[in-house]
Amino acid sequence: MSYNLAQLDPKEKNKIELDKQASFIVWKMKQGKSGPDAITQQMKSIRLDDEKQWFQQSVDKYKRVMGVA
User: Fold this and answer.
1) What digits encode the pLDDT tens for the residues 5-49?
2) Which GO BP terms sit in this record (predicted)?
3) CA 63/CA 9 separation, integer angstroms
4) Domain for residue 3, yes or no?
């Protein structure tokens, strides 16, 4: 079964984008190219509380998966 991401509503597209950003920030932290301040900076740019919560959950998920403290 395949899904066309272009057909998702804007809220779902944004959740996917926030998840990708969280993954990239944690990857950069693992590589030593960024620190925890990158997460703080990204959180400041997110306006809605539910989006901030989603982003933080994604960061926590990727920290577990990638073994980042």
Assistant:
1) 899 999 999 999 999 999 999 999 999 999 999 999 999 999 999
2) DNA replication
3) 28
4) no
Residues with Cβ within 8 Å of residue 5, at least 6 apart in sequence:
13, 16
> What's CA 48's distance to the chain center, in Å?
14
Length of the chain: 69
Does any domain span residue 42? Answer: yes
Say how many domains are in the chain: 1
Q: Residue 38: which residues within 8 A CB-CB, separation 6 or more?
A: 25, 28, 29
Domain holding 58, by residue range, is 9-66
Residue 67 CA to residue 65 CA, distance in Å, equals 6
Radius of gyration of the chain (CA): 13
